[in-house]
Amino acid sequence: MSVNRICNFNAGPAALPEPVLQEVQSSFLDFQGCCMSIVEISHRSSIFDDVINDAVARTRRLLNIGEEYHVLFLQGGASLQFAMAPMNFLTDGRFADYVNTGTWSTKAIKEAQILKKAHNVVASSEDRNFAYIPKNIKFNKDATYAHITSNNTIKGTQWAHFPDTGDVPIISDMSSDMMSRPLDMSKFGMIYAGAQKNLGPAGVCMVVIHDDMLKLIPDGLPTMLDYRTHVSKNSMYNTPPCFPIYTVQLVLKWIEETIGGLAEMEKLNLKKADLLYGFMDATDFYRPTADKDSRSLMNVTFRLPSEELEKKFVANAVDNGLGGLKGHRSVGGCRASIYNAATYENVEKLVEFMKVFEKNNG
Ligand SMILES: *Cc1c(COP(=O)(O)O)cnc(C)c1O
Question: What is the pTM of this model?
Fold first, then answer.
């Protein structure tokens, strides 16, 4: 196929595995012999039932969980989960602990504030512009949940190990590292992820929620904002985003069958990150912004000696077929997002380009 594709380091929406895109393309007009497209069939059809049920089954296998967890596909993005979690779990005098590790955590905390739900910010890395993940955090034993952001897409940090919260279930926003490594799900009451970083196209949010969490939900919430609605209807209370869910299903299949599961996925992600960070650690020209022990394997944020050089770097990269390297507008600098779908070969190409750019500009 003579299709021109760049090495895509976008932060989100982001690169998807090429075999997945090819399968979407080849099945687009006639989905599984039904003579209609996936975007033309009823979500009440048995064909779509098979899609969503397979996506749920694959999620359960990859995360090594059983029926005690419910796998949901919701709309409103991760951003709606910032509000739904406190709405659903924080009534009757209950409260939550939050850790603030960057832009997305801050937004999650803001929703609890807006809803006037009791919460503590038990740790924050704001003092150093969120360049690290806080350690030795004292969580409250009687909190209903502890909320963290497992990977900080904008600041380029990631929890290498999840904190010890005792018996308090963790709720984690995993938008930018969902399915990038194995998880001990027993620590989590709920995890959620907007699909457009690591799971699929924009338009769907994966939520994995433990059955015990459902018992906390008060009556009287708007139907669409009550997790029990979506659990009882297998995410099809209203019309679900069929196309994004189908693409997520293919991505999960790719992780299971082509990569070989989350342990293999993690190995590959470590190998890519080691290559990129290792190269930068050996030069003063590129300077990673996150503390070493807090570095993200997914979003590699770095600076060059000047903003002028950063601009030139991003522009030259595009000329060399490397896209998406500009840092988030709120922090500046550069960022290479190397999610699951970024290949080792593409990271090698990036490092080769970085060497040449340094030679010519250093
Ligand atoms: C992108 C992102 C979000 C926002 O996701 P939406 O699906 O756009 O609401 C939230 N949290 C993290 C960590 C993200 O990277």
Answer: 0.97
